[in-house]
Amino acid sequence: MAATGLRMGVVGGSIAGCAMAIAGTRAGADVTVYERSDGELQDRGLGIVVPPALHGELVALGYLDAAMPTAPVTEHVWLTRSPGRGRTREIARQPSPVTPCNWGRLWQSLRENAGGARHHRGRPVVSVERAAAGGALVRTAAGEAVYDIVVGADGHRSLTRQAIAPGLRPSPAGYLVWRGTIPMSVVAGAPRQLELLRKAWITLGFPGGHGIFYLIPGVAGTDPDDRLLAYAIYFRGPTGAGDPAPHVREIAEEHFPDEWADIVARGEHASLVCHPVTDLHAPRAADPPFVLAGDAAGITRPHTASGAVKALQDALCLEGALGACASPAEALLRYGTERTAEGSRLVELGRRLGAAQVERTPDWGAMGQAEVDAWFRAALAGTKSYLYEG
User: Fold this and answer.
1) Given a cut of 70, is residue 390 above it in pLDDT?
2) What's the pLDDT at 263?
3) Which residue ranges does the record assign to the FAD-binding domain (predicted)?
4) What confidence score (pLDDT) does residue 223 get?
5) Which has the minimum average pLDDT: 139-153, 181-195, 240-254, 280-294?
6) In the 8-state DSSP scheme, what is residue 366?
7) What fold characterizes domain 73-102+171-277+356-388?
8) What is the per-residue pLDDT across 307-346, written as a single tens digit (0 to 9) for each?
């Protein structure tokens, strides 16, 4: 193994950082993780989805616990508002098996399985640089250490990325995403919507954007009724520091079917966040002794549902490269070749999906099954996406 006896530092203790720590320890490295936060992250309850095959692989390899709750569904249903009415109109259905997860529960499972690494909580990294004698120097307020490999898993503002691509910053897409979770008790008053959500994830199209809705496990417990409704609404709107909630509710009231508008307008949210949509692609995902993972390596627009997925695949790729290559440098170069190309593909896919679903939305009211199928084939332009493999 290329990693046996090597010292590996991981900058960042979120999903990407924990997954890379597992990859390093499984490959035989001595791993240290620097976590900016000094608290637990499992209460961050926003939703993510992963491909069922990837979830199964991660469980089989010990990255995730089999007992971690998920909320799998098999279909993707497209909805819109009937013209001139407040009723829901279904316009298409497509097979799309996905495994929705609670971000916090996924992080907790990874964190527990990364116990073979040392974790320094509440110790943000202030600089990362090449060491004069080889390797890389990681500096914190408490001191510094040299590692044979340094993994940048420090998010979209990555310090580690600056060592490979100085000055690279995310590019704005020109629109926003409003994400939230709503307790199941609130959704219980909408039985038809709840019945649909137990089987499918939903896209609700409106002029100038769309909303995504799906169920995820709750923060605690494994009861199927202990779930949250996760949603994301993409729209063009005010990009200043003001509260976007009134604008989002205005969109819902004007363009959503009445029952879906009522859900979004409710004030009982478990979590809420709104931010501009951006993307970024690092020219290299690795430059020995540095390797980038997750958002540090590239930010894709959320339409691809690949943020956490890519971070998890990054970890599997690193473990495989370290186990197969004769030297750490060779392993990182192999990783960089594979993951740089994948990051570029996902960024371009995200841009195409954003153009189709936000920047140049179709006339949703005129769409049917055949029109949606043809329109989305054109948007994918031959690029694979696990969301639309059906």
Assistant:
1) no
2) 85
3) 10-348
4) 64
5) 240-254
6) G
7) D-Amino Acid Oxidase; Chain A, domain 2 (3.30.9)
8) 999 999 999 999 999 999 999 999 999 999 999 999 999 9
Tally of residues, the chain: 390
Tell me: pLDDT of 220 over 90.
Answer: no
Q: What homologous superfamily is domain 7-41+104-167+279-350 in, according to CATH?
A: FAD/NAD(P)-binding domain (3.50.50.60)
Report which residue type is found at 155: G
- Residue 19 in contact with residue 312, Cβ under 8 Å? yes
Residue 388: the pLDDT is 84
* CATH 3.50.50.60, the chain: domain bounds: 7-41+104-167+279-350
Distance between CA 252 and CA 75 in Å, rounded? 24
pTM of structure = 0.94
Compute the average pLDDT of residues 238-267: 80
- Helical segments of 27-91, H only: 52-61
Is cis: bond before 289, omega within 30 of 0? yes
**Alpha helix ranges (H) inside 325-367:** 328-354
Q: Is the separation of the CB atoms in 30 and 5 below 8 Å?
A: yes
- The residue ranges of DSSP E strands in the chain, in sequence order, are 7-11, 30-34, 47-50, 73-81, 88-102, 118-120, 125-130, 136-140, 143-147, 149-152, 171-183, 200-206, 209-217, 227-235, 271-281, 286-287, 290-292, 298-299
| Backbone CA torsion sign across 98, 104, 106, 107 | positive
Instruction: At 273, list the tokens.
Output: 């966040």
Cα separation, 238 vs 259, whole angstroms: 26
Backbone angles phi, psi at 264, to 5 degrees: -65, -35
Q: Indicate if the alpha-carbon torsion angle 187, 213, 279, 364 is positive or negative.
A: negative
- Environment class of residue 268 by beta-carbon count within 10 Å: exposed (0-12), middle (13-18) or buried (19+)? exposed
In the block, tokens 């009522």 appear at 262
Structural tokens at position 73: 């569904």
Does pLDDT of 100 surpass 90?
yes
